[in-house]
Design goal:
mainly alpha; elongated
Length: about 220
């Protein structure tokens, strides 16, 4: 029975890693689509959301089946329940990537250039992407110490968010012709900030999985 549980758990870990790597690729494509103003790449980002949705549904079924069949306790139960929490945050990250792609497409369709300097938005995106990648590594290694460190990166994202929002709002106040793009960039940086929050949530569940301690860093 123990071997059966471990085999099923290994299958679960493989599926959640597949979900993680799918989202990493989506985030890479999102950044590339934004920097190159490439509508085709952004359209693909939107289409990839279905892959993540299907993986979430499959993993959720596997977790519920494992709980019902094996009735795990202590660390084993934490292992499975943390996965259920993690896939919810991963699915929300994919949703936000889709949201960002849609707003970028609206901006690209409305003008032949960005009316705002997007350097800081790109920098913010890279930090968020690194959080996702590092979180994946933490999950593989069950590294609660690094998970705590990653959570601190959320402060950098929040700082970028505040600065970018202040800058965009100031520019829109001075030039009403930039309001259409400005509002959409405000949504974009808000979704990036939310992705960082979900990455932090995942770190919290990795720490819980290892230690049994659930500490909120957001």
């Amino acid at each position: 029975m123990r071997n059966e549980f471990q085999n099923r758990l290994c299958e679960l870990h493989k599926e959640i890693m597949k979900m993680n790597t799918t989202i990493e690729k989506t985030m890479d494509m999102l950044i590339e689509g934004m920097e190159k103003r490439d509508r085709a790449i952004l359209d693909e980002v939107i289409e990839r959301d279905n892959i993540v949705d299907n993986l979430e549904a499959d993993i959720e079924k596997m977790c519920i089946s494992l709980i019902l069949r094996e009735q795990p306790v202590a660390f084993d139960l934490r292992n499975v329940t943390s996965i259920l929490k993690i896939i919810t945050d991963l699915e929300r990250i994919a949703d936000h990537c889709t949201d960002i792609a849609k707003y970028l497409i609206e901006i690209i369709d409305s003008s032949d250039k960005y009316l705002f300097d997007t350097k800081d938005i790109s920098n913010m995106s890279f930090i968020v992407k690194e959080m996702i990648t590092s979180t994946t590594e933490c999950y593989i290694k069950s590294d609660e110490i690094k998970a705590r460190d990653i959570s601190l990166s959320d402060d950098k994202v929040d700082a970028y968010f505040t600065d970018i929002v202040t800058s965009i709002e100031s520019i829109m106040e001075r030039d009403s012709s930039k309001i259409f793009q400005g509002v959409r960039f405000l949504y974009i940086v808000k979704y990036l900030e939310r992705i960082a929050d979900h990455s932090t949530n995942i770190c919290e569940w990795i720490i819980y999985r290892v230690t049994g301690e659930h500490i909120q860093y957001n």
